Amino acid sequence: MEFFDTISKTFLDFDSMLEVLPQLLKTGLTNTLIISISATIIGIVLGMLVAVMGIAKTRWIRIPARIYTDLFRGLPAILTILLIGRGFTGISQDIFGPSPYPLGIIALSLIASAYIGEIFRSGIQSVEKGQLEACRALGMSYGRAMVLVVIPQGIRRVLPALVNQFIAIVKDSSLVYFLGLLPMERELFRVGQDAAVLTGNLSPLVAAGIFYLIITVPLTHLVNYIDQKFRTGRRKATPPTSGLKEVSELQSSTQGERA
Amino acid sequence: MSATKEFHGSSLELTDMAMAYGDVEILHNINLKVAPGTTTCIIGPSGSGKSTLLRGINRLHEPKRGDVIVNGSSILGDRPDDVRKRIGMVFQHFNLFPDHTALQNVALAPWKVKGLNRKKAEELAAARLAEVGLAERSDHRPRDLSGGQQQRVAIARALAMEPEIMLFDEATSALDPELVKGVLNLMADLCQRGMTMVVVTHEMGFARKVADQVVFMDEGEVIESGTPEELFNHPKSDRLRRFLDEVL
């Protein structure tokens, strides 16, 4: 019995949870969302660029994209965040001021863009070659065919993977705490961690964890939902139509027109 | 059938055209003349280079040697995109854009390539779809259309660019048998209306009835060409005789 008492006191102490709740909501959740969403948006823009470069016919466009991807996918996130967050403080100071917050977002964006670039590339390459060919046969340039026809189809196919990537970014956003953020810039993990240290109790961290789950769990279900919808299609089942019906339809329509 | 020539098909000539994939030469010294407003059917066994020939004409694949002459002047020096605006192509597997409706499929190129405004492009598309008997299906997406309907949308899509020449790459090979005739009739109709057409086909009945000229290819060469009567009733070469024995 005593064991369970200790457990609940250590992890589920409601008083210390309640105490940290306003700060988790106001500071932690807000910052986690700002960091994750900005990193995702920048990551998507850069990722699309990397993806398009990665499928270019010219080797000298392809190779830099490859190196970029290998680099940011191959390094531990924490190392990239520290190198960029600490290494570019000089430049960052001139543009953003003394806070390392923007650098944290940039570092996360670069990591995200490497993964998102690969997601986009696989999506774009999964679109049948005939699509590009049909566009080219109509006189479209390569770029226009990609933008109007091929890339939109590719993106649609990888939507579930993109949501998964966003979940990963939400979790990785906790790593920017290494850069030493101002109290009002702290995200969920750091807010929980601070309170945990102050109270000598892990419950605030558990509360932070619950917030992460509130963001991520619905998203994982959204992924499944999207995935299923795309697999089965939006279309309602319709009874099959006889090919003969089409034949007679066609006959009547062309005869009508020629008469 | 109406006899008004509303299309102004151009002439097409290939002189000593050769095509290669990498180092492997697929077509050797093809010579071919297609008069304006006529239909040429290309027949031959698989692997004979029929589809490659079509791809060389609109430069989806660049010819290695020789020349492609449209309306008297070579097109090899032009921008490939400009060449393809003048030469329409219809594919075996339709290659419609799945996330566009039939109308959008047809309107896209006139809007984005030709520069018509969107409304004009859609009016043009609606007219083209009506011509192929699909006025009522214009807001269907390809997956809600039968193969025959999809191929007719694809033909309307190519026609909307007002091409001078139309290329058909086994346009009926992927269709259910009862839907083949509808598409073939539509093609015969285009021929009547003055379009210049080069048709790669396995439909010998179509070639016999509609073609002005039939070309038999094998192993990357033109073995024999002439009128349908000459090729089907009086084949000269052994290879054509053997081929006809197999397919007729």
Q: Explain this structure to me?
A:
The complex is a heterodimer of chains A (259) and B (248). Chain A is mainly alpha-helical and 259 residues long. Chain A has helices spanning 2-11, 14-54, 59-74, 77-87, 89-96, 101-125, 129-137, 142-157, 159-172, 188-199, 203-232, 243-258. The longest helix of chain A has 41 residues, at 14-54. Chain B is 37% helix and 24% strand. Chain B is built from nine helices and ten strands. In chain B, the strands form two sheets. In chain B, strands 6-7-8-3-9-10 form a six-stranded mixed sheet, sandwiched between helices. A four-stranded antiparallel sheet of chain B has the order 2-1-4-5, with helices on one face. The longest helix of chain B has 16 residues, at 177-192. Chain B is globular and about 55 Å long. The model of chain B has no long low-confidence stretch (mean pLDDT 95). Classes of the chains: A mainly alpha (259), B alpha/beta (248).
